[in-house]
C-alpha cells in the first residue's frame, strides 16, 4: 500500500465524526481510511489502494458493490414516489410487493412484516411485538427475554441489552436491567475437554430450561438467537441445538426469535437459514443487511400468522401497535430490496454461495497449520479464525494480534475483520474460488510475517 495522504475529507471526518467501535484516544492521531469507490468484490480508498472486500462492507453487501441496476432501481423509485407516511391505512407499492415476497420465501407461516431502519430496530420491534402479543393474550407478566452470551443483536438500547458481548455495555450501567437474561453461548470451541458435541448440546439445553424455571415460566416470554453467532466470533452451535431450544420454548409457551440479520439472503446459501439449514421455523424472524445488500438501510421483523391473529384480533384492547417508525416500509429501501432479491435470483447467487462457501471453509482449514491459529470454523460465507497463545489451553493470543493481522492483510490488498482475538470473514456472496484463495493466502502470509517479527 502507498503511504496515506491526509486529505481534506480525512480531516473533516477526524474532526467531526463519532465513529462506532472506534478508540477515540488514538483516532485523533490516526483518523480514518477514506473509502471512495466500490465495485464488485473491491473497494478503493482515497490513496488509490484497491482492496478485496473480505467482509462485504459489514456482513451486508451480498450482491457486491456498485451495481448500476441497483442505482437505477433506486432512482426510479425516487422519481415515482420517494416517501409518504406509512401510518394507519396508507401504504406504497414496493413495501407491499416486498411484504408478499418475503412471506412467500420465509419458512412456515411467517406471513407478516414490520419494517424498520436496520437490524437493531428490527430486534427492538421483535421484543415490542413479543410484549404486545402476550399483553393482548392477557399474560401481563410474560415479559422476560432470554438471550445468549456472545450474541450480537444491535446497538439501540434494547438490542444492546440483548447483546451478550462483553465490552458493548461499558459505560452503560442501565443496559439489560431486569427483563433480559443471558445463557451460555453455543461455543463448540469452548466446550469442556472430553465432552462430546451431543453432551454439550444437552448441557446448553438443560441450562436454558433451568434458567426458565429460575425466572418462572409465567414470566419468560421469548428466546432470541442468531442461527450462527456472527460478531460473537462465528460460533456454530452443536447439531440439533436450535430445534431443541425451539422445542423447549414451545414447552413453556415462549416465542423463539431468530436473528437472521447476518445469515439471511444468501450468506449460508439460502434466503433464510433457520429452516433450510437448522430445521426449525421460528415464531419471529429478524433480518436486515443483505435484504438490500447495504445499498439502502432496511430491516424487517417477520411474525407468524398465529401471532398476527392475536394482535390483530378485533377484541384486542388498545388496538394499535404503537411502534411508529417514520421510515416503516420506506419505498426507496423496499424498491432496493426487491431489486436486490431479483438480482440474487437471476444471477444464481445463492447457488454460488452454496458452491463456493464450502470451498472457502475447506481451503481455510490450512490455516490450522500455523502455530497461533486455534480454530477455523463457520459455514458457507461466514468464517471465524481464533488466534491463540497456546493451542492446548486455547488461551487467547490477545486482542492486539488480530489488529496487527488486519493491517498486514490490508498491506496485501485484502480486508478482513479483527474482532477481539479473532479474524472474521464474510465476503460478498458473488465471491469466486480465486478470491477465496486470495483471502486465505493474505491471512496466512500476514500471520507468518507477524510471527517472524515477534
Ligand atoms: N443482529 C445481528 C446478528 C447483527 O450482526 C447486527 C449488526 N451487525 C445487528 C443485529 C444490528 O443491525 P444494525 O447494525 O443494522 O442495526
UniProtKB/TrEMBL annotation:
The keyword Transferase applies. It comes from the Bacteria. Pfam families: Aminotran_3 (PF00202). GO terms for molecular function: pyridoxal phosphate binding; transaminase activity. The lineage of its organism: Bacteria, Pseudomonadati, Pseudomonadota, Alphaproteobacteria, Rhodobacterales. Its cofactor is pyridoxal 5'-phosphate. Belongs to the class-III pyridoxal-phosphate-dependent aminotransferase family. Keywords: Aminotransferase, Pyridoxal phosphate, Transferase. InterPro entries: Aminotrans_3, Aminotrans_3_PPA_site, PyrdxlP-dep_Trfase, PyrdxlP-dep_Trfase_major, PyrdxlP-dep_Trfase_small. This is Aminotransferase.
Amino acid at each position: 500500500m502507498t503511504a496515506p495522504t491526509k486529505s481534506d475529507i480525512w480531516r473533516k471526518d477526524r474532526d467531526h465524526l463519532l465513529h462506532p467501535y472506534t478508540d477515540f484516544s488514538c483516532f485523533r492521531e490516526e483518523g480514518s481510511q477514506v473509502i471512495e469507490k466500490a465495485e464488485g468484490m473491491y473497494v478503493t480508498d482515497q490513496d488509490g489502494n484497491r482492496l478485496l472486500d473480505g467482509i462485504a462492507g459489514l456482513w451486508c453487501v451480498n450482491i457486491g458493490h456498485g451495481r448500476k441496476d441497483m442505482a437505477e432501481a433506486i432512482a426510479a423509485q425516487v422519481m415515482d414516489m420517494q416517501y409518504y407516511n406509512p401510518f394507519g391505512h396508507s401504504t406504497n407499492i414496493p413495501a407491499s410487493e416486498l411484504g408478499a415476497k418475503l412471506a412467500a420465501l420465509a419458512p412456515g407461516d411467517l406471513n407478516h412484516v414490520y419494517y424498520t431502519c436496520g437490524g437493531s430496530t428490527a430486534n427492538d420491534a421483535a421484543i415490542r411485538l413479543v410484549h404486545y402479543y402476550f399483553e393482548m393474550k392477557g399474560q401481563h407478566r410474560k415479559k422476560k427475554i432470554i438471550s445468549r452470551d456472545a450474541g450480537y443483536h444491535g446497538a439501540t438500547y434494547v438490542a444492546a441489552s440483548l447483546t451478550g458481548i462483553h465490552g458493548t455495555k461499558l459505560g452503560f450501567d442501565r443496559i439489560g436491567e431486569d427483563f433480559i437474561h443471558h445463557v451460555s453461548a453455543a461455543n463448540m470451541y469452548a466446550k469442556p475437554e472430553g465432552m462430546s458435541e451431543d453432551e454439550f448440546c444437552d448441557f446448553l439445553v438443560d441450562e436454558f430450561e433451568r434458567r426458565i424455571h429460575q425466572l418462572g415460566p409465567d414470566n419468560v416470554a421469548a428466546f432470541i438467537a442468531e442461527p450462527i453467532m456472527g460478531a460473537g466470533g462465528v460460533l456454530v452451535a452443536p447439531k440439533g441445538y436450535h430445534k431443541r431450544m425451539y422445542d423447549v420454548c414451545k414447552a413453556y409457551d415462549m416465542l423463539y426469535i431468530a436473528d437472521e440479520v447476518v445469515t439471511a439472503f444468501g450468506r449460508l446459501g439460502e434466503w433464510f437459514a433457520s429452516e433450510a439449514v437448522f430445521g426449525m421455523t421460528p415464531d419471529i424472524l429478524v433480518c436486515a443487511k443483505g435484504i438490500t445488500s447495504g445499498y439502502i438501510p432496511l430491516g424487517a421483523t417477520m411474525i407468524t400468522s398465529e401471532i398476527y391473529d392475536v394482535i390483530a384480533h378485533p377484541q384486542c384492547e388498545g388496538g394499535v401497535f404503537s411502534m411508529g417508525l417514520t421510515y416503516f416500509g420506506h419505498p426507496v429501501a423496499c424498491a432496493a430490496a426487491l431489486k436486490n432479491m431479483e438480482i440474487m435470483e437471476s444471477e444464481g447467487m445463492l447457488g454460488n454461495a452454496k458452491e463456493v462457501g464450502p470451498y472457502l471453509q475447506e481451503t481455510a482449514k490450512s490455516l490450522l497449520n500455523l502455530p497461533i491459529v486455534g480454530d477455523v470454523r463457520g459455514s458457507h460465507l461466514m468464517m471465524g479464525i481464533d488466534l491463540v497463545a497456546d493451542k492446548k489451553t486455547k488461551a487467547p493470543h490477545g486482542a492486539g494480534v488480530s489488529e496487527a493481522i488486519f493491517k498486514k492483510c490490508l498491506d496485501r490488498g485484502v480486508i478482513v475483520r479483527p474482532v477481539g482475538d479473532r479474524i472474521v470473514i464474510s465476503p460478498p456472496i458473488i465471491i469466486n474460488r480465486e478470491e477465496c484463495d486470495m483471502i486465505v493466502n493474505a491471512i496466512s502470509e500476514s500471520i507468518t510475517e507477524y510471527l517472524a517479527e515477534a
